[in-house]
């Protein structure tokens, strides 16, 4: 790997909002770092890395086409790797090995600051051998996040894919499941849902609301400068409470 006077990085993350957030955090924490490319999937990441040879690759562990783990394996020591993940299990395993760093989603300034500090110390050394870490991560057993929901729609039951859900909202003793076509009810609490859903795609934005990041058209600010979520296929706007406003601070 050819070292540059100005360090360079590649960001590989399939969710545009999360990619923008990571880039913004990096700009704040490490102004000298040049993000030379962004990729939406693992195959793009590999092609861009081979073409541009960045010093650092920020790789989302769960990406389409090729996962971040597969990309890291193919890179084989050609650059320093930072895994980006919503799952502590991945991060803890990698971090304890001391060979690789990680960023948990949603990305916080505190975590990025620690990652930047460690990367600056490592840049003058060859990238670590990740073979052991990758083998452990790839062998990790996981039942996976919730994919389908059985919900009540009047007197009938309906099976809804979580990919079709725009948001979940607490309503009395039930939770409302909102899609582009309408609403249904389930008996799971917001907390239970949040623990079962894919944390990379579903964010809790209010004590009683979880939103699908893929359903968001944009984020605006209200008169109090609080984030306000505009959905792609629903007319209502979702309020982000102060507790969760930091998730959108860099956007």
Description:
It is a single chain. With 251 residues, the chain is of the alpha/beta class. The chain folds into two domains: 8-138, Response regulator (Rossmann fold, 3-Layer(aba) Sandwich); 148-248, OB fold (Dihydrolipoamide Acetyltransferase, E2P) (Beta Barrel), CATH 2.40.50. The chain has helices spanning 16-29, 42-52, 68-75, 88-97, 109-122, 131-138, 190-196, and strands at residues 8-12, 34-39, 56-60, 80-85, 101-104, 148-153, 156-161, 165-171, 174-179, 183-186, 202-206, 209-212, 216-221, 227-231, 237-239. Helix 2 (42-52) runs parallel beside helix 3 (68-75) and helix 4 packs antiparallel against helix 6 (131-138). The protein is globular.
Q: Brief overview, please?
A:
The protein is of the alpha/beta class and 251 residues long.
